[in-house]
Amino acid sequence: MDLNTIFTARRSGAEQNTIAPRSAYQRDFDRIIFSSAFRRLQNKTQVFPLPGSVFVHNRLTHSLEVASVGRSLGSVIGEYLADSFKEELIEESRLFYRYNLNNVIAAACLCHDIGNPAFGHSGEDAIASYFERNENSLKSHFSDKEWSDLVNFEGNANAIRVLTQQQVGKDEGGLKLTYTTLASIAKYPCESSAKDFSKLDLQRKKIGFFQSEEKTFEAIAASVNLIQMSKKPKIYRRHPFVWLVEAADDICYNIIDMEDAHRLGIVKTEPCEALFKSLIESVNADDMPRIKRKLEQITNENERISYLRAKAINSLINKTKEIYIQNIGAILDGSLNQSLLDICGKNCDALEKIEYYSIKNIYQHRAVVEIENAGYNVMYELLDHFIPSILKKESSRKNYDKMALRLLPPQFVYEGGSDYQKVLGVIDYISGMTDNYATDLYRKIKGIDIGMTV
After folding, report:
1. Residues 152-174: pLDDT tens digits?
2. Which Gene3D superfamilies does the UniProt record give (predicted)?
3. If you count Cβ atoms within 10 Å of the first and of the last residue's Cβ in the chain, which end, N or C, has fewer?
4. 119 in the Ramachandran plot: left (φ > 0), alpha (ψ -120 to 50) or beta?
5. Which of 209, 236, 263 is at the close of a domain?
């Protein structure tokens, strides 16, 4: 890929570029911050249940931290690209990489989870499995590609929809972000029928866009010159900026989930410290003497873990830069098939130990499994309350169908559209819910709580 042609200030919704003190990419960041979809991340589960006496990360705080790490990665890689490819870059490109790549990566990191439903990955599972479990009664309403979207529902593809779709009664183009920022979140740039169930192809492990956003994604791909691998089904190679967004996310959840678990008492101080020290030493051994001297001055356990967490993240940022530079050729031609943190893990036993420890002691902890089970059931039942009714012809709807559909806000009701559009409207509503709102609505429609909502 040509570094001169993989970025653009053009926006979804065909908005004309405007002159402003902020760059187009800084405005992307600000538009995301002020969006209602971003605010709702405050009450969406990251890993641990949100209620409790100890504050843990939610999707919003996680996204802010990923954006911070992403900005650092964008800065160091931007400088590298501006310097190392200066003979090949035009002046506009040199300025972009030196001063604006960090803004693109930060904006993309900020919205990388914006399409994730409530209750983490169990919310995604509930949506996909709802259609799988009701195939006999539902599949006939959809084309094969539409059905593939539904049974492979994925937060990454939903993010493109949330950020770009025109809801009923609203403006065209969604948040009107630049195509550069949108391309930077497309970890899996393929349609659902191209999904690689063997998971051997990193770029097709999941899906990147629904049929409803096919034309939008084609416009994104064309504007930043994504390499197209296949037209039928549509498969593209990742944009070079995606690797940095993915790395920022991987760095944060690997390290910060451990810190959260420590604050909750799930992970003891000694193994947590040992894992973090081992990681820092394996990627940045020269810094260890100073770190050990600093730790001698800190006696508070939470503060010790916070300090080591910061040092671990900084070490991984530096290692990610090194790996990105080593693999720049494969990144630009689209042939790289491992995430940057996976490459790091192959040469760093400490990172693999943290991942293994987290799976065994954190992600399988009872509190996490309980919220995943509860979230799955809440989301499944909400879908079952609305979808059978929305799929009936208006003339065939019984009173209970009409009562159910009155709960749908008007921007999510596509009565004149296809069954696919109608169902996506319901999914838009339910996937956008916070944990608390989804739970509250579930309790009310099931008669567990009865009272007035104003």
Report:
1. 999 999 999 999 997 776 777 78
2. eoxyguanosinetriphosphate triphosphohydrolase domain-like, Hypothetical protein af1432, putative deoxyguanosinetriphosphate triphosphohydrolase like domain
3. C
4. left
5. 236
Block residue for tokens 């029928």: 193
In a domain, 211, yes or no: yes
Q: What is the DSSP track for 157-202?
A: HHHHHHHH---TTS-TTTT--BHHHHHTT-SS-BBGGG--TT--SG
One domain, residues 316 and 409: no
Amino acid at 327: N
Which residue range is the domain that position 376 belongs to?
367-391+400-445
> Which percentage of the chain shows pLDDT scores above 70?
95
Rounded distance, CA 329 to CA 135, Å? Answer: 44
Using the structure block, give the residue that is written with the tokens 């260890």: 288
**Token match 């195509």: residue?**
179
Tokens representing residue 420 in the block? 């696919």
**Length of the chain as a residue count:** 454
Residue 454 counted as domain residue? no
311 has a pLDDT exceeding 60: yes
**86-144 pLDDT, tens digit each:** 999 999 999 999 999 999 999 999 999 999 999 888 999 999 999 999 999 999 999 99
Q: Rounded to an integer, what distance in angstroms lies between the CA atom of residue 263 and that of residue 265? A: 5
Q: What six digits make up the tokens of 271? A: 């193994």
Q: Are residues 405 and 356 in the same domain?
A: no
Same domain, 217 and 322: no
Name the domain count of the chain.
4
- Residue 185 is encoded by which pair of tokens? 């979140």
Residue 53 has pLDDT above 60, yes or no: no
Q: Which of 182, 203, 236 is the last residue of a domain?
A: 236
CA–CA distance from 103 to each of 24, 66, 69, 98 (Å)?
9, 13, 12, 10
Q: For residue range 394-410, list pLDDT tens digits in order.
A: 999 999 999 999 999 99
Does residue 352 share a domain with residue 371? no
357/252 same-domain check = yes
Residue 64 sits in the same domain as residue 144: no
